[in-house]
């Protein structure tokens, strides 16, 4: 397989992830709606509800891609928060920039190319750090979590929205079948790219389940770590604080 997604050694994961998002960037938003039947919008709304952003806050959305989380934060704060969208992939950021221009919302928004494992921000910069459907794409999750703690101010909030482990047995079986067969098929038809959507399935399967991710967050020095399942654990919202 050209993508080698079966067993991806750490050294190759970054370039694989780069290729996947280069390939899907143009169709990324459409594919999210199709694959999740629009439900990703509700998951993202729930994350921003939990964040409850206020005017004057300084927030970084890491792996922010085409801007979905940042635009929601911007809308809720009426452009009165400072938001940095940081993503390792310039192609995804370029789509995000076009969308921001279309919506006329560049004020208060900075688009920054950078790696979650080595963020281009000073210590104690942000009141909040969000990451949606990003952490599973990072090569070394522990390094990314250490960066979370570093760039947050004391009292700062961390929220992570990510695919997780389905907790309902029947739903789990349906979902496994769906994601192993329908995702690559849809990816092939709509984006002309079956392989990238097989990577999606693999990356979800390999991502640490709820308890494990919570333990890793605590390990990285985040406090009061909690999570909440959504859609039966298809997605989980983890939260923690830098104190
Ligand atoms: N947050 C957006 C959303 O929810 O629609 C985009 C999520 S998309 C599935 C994953 C994003 O993670 C891609 O834009 C990809 O470029 C980015 N990414 C992957 N590895 C990264 C890393 N090490 N640092 C920063 N961003 C990364």
Protein architecture, described:
- This protein has a single domain, classed as Rossmann fold (3-Layer(aba) Sandwich), CATH 3.40.50.
- It has nine helices and seven strands; from the N terminus they run H-H-H-E-H-E-H-E-E-H-E-H-H-H-E-E.
- The N and C termini lie far apart (45 Å).
- Helices cover 48% and strands 21% of the residues.
- Strand 2 (82-87), helix 5 and strand 3 (109-113) form a beta-alpha-beta unit.
- Strands 3-2-1-4-5-7-6 form a seven-stranded mixed β-sheet, with helices on both faces.
- Helix 1 crosses helix 8 (194-206), helix 3 (39-51) crosses helix 4 (68-76) and helix 7 runs antiparallel to helix 8 (194-206).
- With 243 residues, it is an alpha/beta fold.
- The chain has helices at 10-24, 28-36, 39-51, 68-76, 90-103, 141-151, 169-190, 194-206, 210-219; strands at residues 58-62, 82-87, 109-113, 126-132, 152-163, 223-230, 235-241.
- The longest helix is centred in the C-terminal third of the chain and has 22 residues, at 169-190.
- GO terms for molecular function: 2-methoxy-6-polyprenyl-1,4-benzoquinol methyltransferase activity; demethylmenaquinone methyltransferase activity.
- Pathway: Cofactor biosynthesis; ubiquinone biosynthesis; Quinol/quinone metabolism; menaquinone biosynthesis; menaquinol from 1,4-dihydroxy-2-naphthoate: step 2/2.
- S-adenosyl-L-methionine binds at residues 66, 87, 115-116.
